[in-house]
Design goal:
Elements lengths: L4 H9 L9 E4 L2 E2 L7 H12 L9 E5 L1 E4 L2 E2 L2 E4 L3 E5 L6 H13 L6 H7 L4
Helix pairs in contact: 2-3, 2-4, 3-4
Bound molecules: zinc ion.
């Protein structure tokens, strides 16, 4: 594990399922094409959770910068079907899977399934 990881975990912790004016983005756009590994990661998270929700319904976005309440975050799920990843988290499996747990479960609270199914709790 790199020394950077705790900071990333904290960054993701602050950032999930956010609505309204506290979320700030720059350079936000549709993530196209969607990375080829995402559908497999979605299937893995579904299997881990024992619950299914359509992969096709997800609207993927990417942002150059992503802040919540002034803190930099790695990704955010916006209920019900939108996931925005910060550009440097697009290829980071734990961060993407973390947002997929939010989406598949449709929950904003962080239960133990986040650690179990994405590798990061917050
Ligand atoms: Zn979260």
């Amino acid at each position: 594990m790199s020394a950077k990881l705790p900071a990333l975990v904290l960054a993701v912790l602050a950032g999930c399922n956010i609505f309204g004016p506290q979320l700030e983005t720059t350079g936000r756009m549709r993530l196209e094409p969607t990375p080829s590994q995402y559908e497999g990661w979605h299937a893995e998270v579904q299997d881990c959770l024992g619950r299914a929700r359509s992969y096709e319904r997800i609207e993927w976005f990417v942002a150059d910068e992503l802040y919540y309440g002034g803190a930099e975050i790695g990704g955010v799920w916006s209920s019900p079907d939108r996931i925005t990843m910060r550009r440097d988290h697009v290829g980071w499996e734990p961060s993407v899977k973390h947002e997929l747990v939010h989406y598949i479960e449709q929950v904003s609270e962080h239960g133990p399934e986040f650690l179990r199914c994405s590798g990061i709790l917050g």
